[in-house]
Design goal:
By secondary structure, the chain is α/β, with parallel strands linked by helices. It has eight helices and eleven strands.
């Protein structure tokens, strides 16, 4: 088979793989993947490598630890489906990286929508801004700001998405989400095990509407007035939301996910492995509950 080497073919092939795997379902997201050049957001990376199912590190700290990356396409697609953005929506993203995710969302919310993507590193903001401009995305803006603090001057947002990991729910973000809005947030369940949760505002309460496998570099700055909401304790957020209990929502999501997996698979005899048996990620879900 002759390898695909032209950008249009690589875009189509990537989108089709994600559709076939079930990661992409909505037409808006499919069209965005088919029309957005991923390699334009990965300067210095070989053309064919830019469309592989790999995360690509783009920044490390002084110790060599990765602090920012462009996520693997399947993770990007999963979060976009969780987000469920629609034309005309205002979207806030924490974690600009190279701007690729913002470009996809910019196309999804067109016409009439706007995306703001935030990062705490000026070099990443500058790079994302350059990539977005070169790709002709005029409704996505990269801004230097702490994602945990949000961007209140443009609030409320129909959708808020974090593409950096968190151990807590950023309290200031909650007040910037519109009624009926949705927050997508990767959170550590226990240790290194993490999931991407989608929460929806329902009056003065919240509900979990989605829980997916995901792992992201941890966010590196916190809000100045203190603290983020600790999921291991009773949630303490703005007085306007006294009934919010994110840790309970997360525990319920984990139980539901485990129940679904157990129903879908019949457990083998103790100590016996069988082909097609539970993957390591399923064992992680069980051990984290």
């Amino acid at each position: 088979m002759t390898p695909v080497t032209d950008p249009a073919g690589l875009r189509d092939s990537l989108a089709q793989r994600l559709v076939d795997s079930g990661h992409l379902r909505s037409q808006g997201a499919i069209d965005a993947f088919r029309t957005t050049d991923r390699h334009q957001f990965l300067p210095g990376v070989a053309l064919d490598a830019a469309y592989k199912e790999d995360a690509v590190p783009i920044k490390h700290d002084e110790s060599g630890e990765m602090t920012s990356c462009i996520s693997a396409p399947s993770i990007v697609a999963t979060q976009l489906e969780q987000l469920g953005a629609q034309p005309g929506h205002k979207v806030l993203e924490a974690g600009a990286a190279t701007g690729y995710n913002a470009a996809l969302m910019g196309k999804i919310v067109s016409p009439g929508g706007q995306v703001w993507t935030l990062d705490v590193d000026q070099d990443l903001v500058a790079g994302a801004s350059k990539n977005l401009a070169q790709s002709g995305i005029d409704n996505a803006t990269a801004t230097l700001a702490d994602g945990a603090a949000g961007l209140p001057e443009h609030a409320p947002y129909d959708r808020i998405i974090f593409t950096v990991g968190a151990g807590d729910v950023p309290g200031k973000i909650l007040d910037q989400l519109a009624s009926g809005g949705r927050l997508v947030l990767p959170m550590r369940i226990r240790g290194s095990i993490s999931r991407s949760f989608a929460f929806e505002r329902d009056g003065e309460t919240w509900k979990t509407v989605s829980c997916e496998m995901a792992a992201f570099p941890r966010g590196r700055r916190r809000v100045a007035d203190g603290r983020l909401v600790n999921r291991e304790e009773q949630v303490r957020v703005a007085a306007a939301l006294p009934r919010l209990r994110v840790h309970r929502l997360m525990e319920r999501a984990k139980r539901l996910q485990l129940r679904e997996r157990l129903r879908a698979r019949r457990a083998p005899a103790p100590g016996v492995a069988r082909p097609g048996g539970p993957a390591l990620r399923d064992i992680e879900v069980f051990s984290a509950t």
